[in-house]
Amino acid sequence: MCTCVALLMCVILSNWVNYFLEERKPLCNMTYEDYENYSYFYYPSEEDESPQSSLSIAHIISLFFYSVAFLLGVPGNAIVIWFMGFKWDKSVSTLWFLNLAIADFIFVLFLPLYITYVAMGFHWPFGKWLCKMNSFIALLNMFASVFFLTFISLDRYIRLVHPVFSYKYRTVKNTLLLSGVIWMSAAIIGGPALYFRDTATGLNNVTVCFNNFHVYDRELILLTHHILIWVRLAFGYLFPLVTMVICYSLLIVKVKRRTVLTSSRLFWTITAVIVAFFVCWTPYHIFSIVELNAHHDENLHDLLQDGIPLSTGLGFINSCLNPILYVLISKKFQSQVKSTVSEVLKLALWEVSRSGTVSEQLWSSDSAPVHYSETAQ
To answer: In whole angstroms, what is the distance from residue 59 CA to residue 80 CA?
Structure first.
């Protein structure tokens, strides 16, 4: 990983030097063929009357995915953050789930920007710096979420299968240190977005937010793109997927042998977690690899214009499934939520009944007839 990161930094430095030494082509004058990378990018044709008229069925479905991820992910992860961060005592498990929920929460919180982008026919009205920041935050929290999923699987395996090692090294302090390393790693992987993301205004005054790899060196463009994609694939998909499969497989075997668990609850929970991760993230990385071939085959552009937003939407869905699969199915969490909701409802009903009683008393006192004494008359 260090070698890949070092190579990537060299590429970025080279791009930065070329940025000042060479006169770059104005983005507003660039043609369709000038864009060498099409991530999150759709360029309308001259025949399109408006950007919105060019939306395909795949784009509409992707908008549905984004909306579902936002509507379910924000409250779901917020509930987890509330309980793990403010209600429960700090432990190794709560810290893992707290960080996972924070990553997913920030991830889905910025979805309205991308929903607007797609709904407006891939027109970005928010400016270049928000284009950079939105892409960086999305990548940062996306990979932080994936990494925390991976370490949660490792933590579960170590806690149940290696109790001695767990008792010695599974501490809150070590968990905090590992959490910091995870956030830093995710920031390194997402960092190039701050440099490469750019905006350009083209046909029909449509502004796109895309990866600008242009330094008039095709080999450097291809090298940069390949490094970014393969680093993301290796550390954001293959490593987490293999780790989860191995850890959970060994965990099921060990638990079954020791007859610690008599029900199939653990098995189905683990299966759901792996399947959800595989289904949500596999299309995203497949289209990322296909995108590499777009440099040599223009016929892939139509496929990518539909496939990338759709596969990205599936990836977003994983962020609203995480609190459901990992926390909300927990009996302890369910009991805590029920008790809290019950307390809130009781308090609300008590206040309503109390306010109603006071109102009745005031009304009765106002409407009661006044009796004057004879002496007063």
So the answer is: 31
DSSP state at residue 22 = S
Neighbours of 25 (CB within 10 A): 12
Q: What is the distance of C-alpha 153 from the center of its chain?
A: 19
Which pair of structure tokens corresponds to residue 190? 């997402």
Q: How is residue 215 annotated by DSSP?
A: S
For the chain, give every domain's residue range: 55-337
Name residue 200's beta-bridge partners.
Answer: 208
CA 217 to chain CA centroid, Å, is 33
Pair of tokens at residue 300: 């892939």
Using one digit for the tens of pLDDT, what is the confidence trace for 324-365? 877 666 666 666 666 665 565 555 555 555 554 444 454 455
CB proximity list for 62: less than 8 A, separation 6 or greater: 118, 309, 310, 312, 313
Q: Tell me phi and psi for residue 113, to 5 degrees.
A: -65, -45
Q: How far is CA 368 from CA 75, 278, 375, in A?
A: 49, 72, 21
pLDDT digits (tens, 9 = 90+) for 187-234: 999 999 898 888 888 777 888 888 887 656 778 888 888 898 999 899
- 55-337, superfamily in CATH? Rhodopsin 7-helix transmembrane proteins (1.20.1070.10)
* Model confidence, pTM: 0.74
